[in-house]
Known about the structure:
Layout: H1 3-21, E1 37-38, E2 48-52, E3 65-68, E4 71-74, E5 87-91, E6 97-106, E7 121-128, E8 144-149, E9 162-164, E10 168-172, E11 175-177, E12 181-182, E13 195-202, E14 206-211, E15 214-224, E16 235-236, E17 241-246, E18 251-260
Antiparallel strand pairs: 1-18, 2-5, 3-4, 4-18, 5-17, 6-13, 6-18, 7-8, 7-17, 8-9, 9-12, 10-11, 10-15, 13-14, 14-15, 15-16
Amino acid sequence: MTTQNTLIFLLFSIFLGFQSCKKTEPETKEESGENWQSLFDGKTLEGWTPKIRGEAFGKDSLNTFQVRNGAIVVNYKNYDSFNNRFGHLFYKTPFSSYRLKLQYRFIGEQANGGEGWGYKNSGIMLHCQDSKTMDIDQPFPNSLEAQFLGGIYDSVPRPTGNLCTPGTHVHIKGKLEKTHCITANAPTIYGEEWVEVEVEVYGDSLIRHYINGKPVITYTKPIQDVPDDSLNHLKPLKSGYISLQSESHPIEFKGILLQELK
Length: 262
């Protein structure tokens, strides 16, 4: 073998060795067999429908929900005043047991006329009632809210990833909890950075919120609070829709992935 052929052979052997040592893990969740599905294509609001307080289902006359730079943007540029026009953007399909991942960040300034508590306040609603059954002036769907808050003052904690319960209740540590909003063991996010959120939902059994990969609150046995004296009072809440909230402060959502669980 000539010196030139020997060199070529050695280089080829090194290349093959390098190739065999390369990682073979899949690059995406979909490839890994975990069956994640994207609920947002990054370009349009296909599959999502708004319900704004005071407007019929599907109407968003002030263009609250938009898509910009690969994110769903909740904005109030066309609002003279927020005027309690709470809104929700509903995904088309109800789910029961699943993992949901997304990223959010608060941006800009609160809409004129927004409530003081609405500053850097938004969320995702889980196990929502069907939006078509909401009253036209109903501010929030009956649901379980994974509430997102942003810090205001450096010395004042304002944790994110909390639980709020419009029209619902849950159990915590085996006891029925009727407090409307329950604070999570979570960090306070002061800036406009992206925050990673995950929720695990197991029907009417157990639900857990994660912020930046860490569990921050767990609750069980969600129930719908039916305001009557019948035997159907406090129905188990087994499934429902997912919605993104408009609550007067601009916010962006992206990377919305869901994995159904059996």
